[in-house]
Amino acid sequence: MLFILTGLLGIIYAILCGTYDSVRGMTALFHVDRELNKRKKQSSPNTTIRRRESDISRESTPTKISKQEDEPALMTLILKLSVFNGGIFLMSVLLFEFLILPLINIMIVSTFGEDIMMSNKYWELTKTLLTIFYQTTWVLPLLLLSKIVNCLWFQDIADKAYKYSRGRPLINQSISRIVADSIFSILVQVLFLLQATIVELIPLYIVGKILGLVHMCLLYSLYTFEYKWFNMGWELHRRLSFIETNWPYFIGFGLPLAFVTQMSSSWVINGCIFALLFPWFIVSGNEANPVTNSSQYPLHLFSPVIALSNALFNKTIGTRFQKRKVNNTPTHVRR
């Protein structure tokens, strides 16, 4: 009995530590940005000779700006993403959902007066047509643009945060191996998201919701830590194995982001909230030290999608990377 109680306390402690580390990025960002600026100033001594050389170089090449000086700060990148994802994308969706559509509904109801059936009929038709038009002409193009922008800036934010804490990335893989790892990782994430959706359909409502939430917590933790682990040279099998082994910590780490992105019934709004908050969690993940060995029983939730991904990957990409991948896959994944 004491053994079981000790194990439960260890799991709860790891979950709480993960939750704390995830929200700590809100304050860690200011410290990281300040230290990066301090190091930049220390690496560029303010001497009279340097000023004169700088003036001469500016006169000879007035349009030339050093890469170090032109490099945007970490806070600047995150604020730009916040303006784009929150100020433009999210606000436009909220205005359409909660301002434009209600106003049109009021106009239709006032036009038909007491004829409720006719007003409801025209309202449903108008709402459907406007929603389709809005999503095809604004939401989908902006969503594709945001995916591209976010991927580029997320990577830049992760690289800056990693450079602050650990120096240069340790990537010792060939280009073909990196490409194969990236494609396989995306496939695993998509299938795991599909698995999370399926488990939520379990007839027992509470059980389905809890299992779905656990899946999303682990998936968001993988999203967050993948930048750091990739720069550390960890391959996908090692990243997934580490999450499955230390699942209490990563459930706690992904819990805040999973909770706030399920508050709305609109997947577009949830996606905007994710893109708005995710850069902060990248910094949190880079600064975090996961609690390990909190549970003696790994949670092999990624094993089914890895088995399916192996089959799909080998059929679509071919057998070029099969031998390399199988040799580096842990035992529980190859089963």
From TrEMBL:
Keywords: Membrane, Transmembrane, Transmembrane helix. It is found in: Membrane. InterPro entries: CysZ/EI24 (IPR059112). The keyword Membrane applies. The chain crosses the membrane at residues 12-32, 88-112, 132-154, 175-198, 204-225, 297-314. It is a multi-pass membrane protein. Residues 40-64 are annotated as: Disordered. Coiled coil: none annotated. Belongs to the EI24 family. This is Etoposide-induced protein 2.4 isoform X1. It comes from Nicrophorus vespilloides (Boreal carrion beetle).
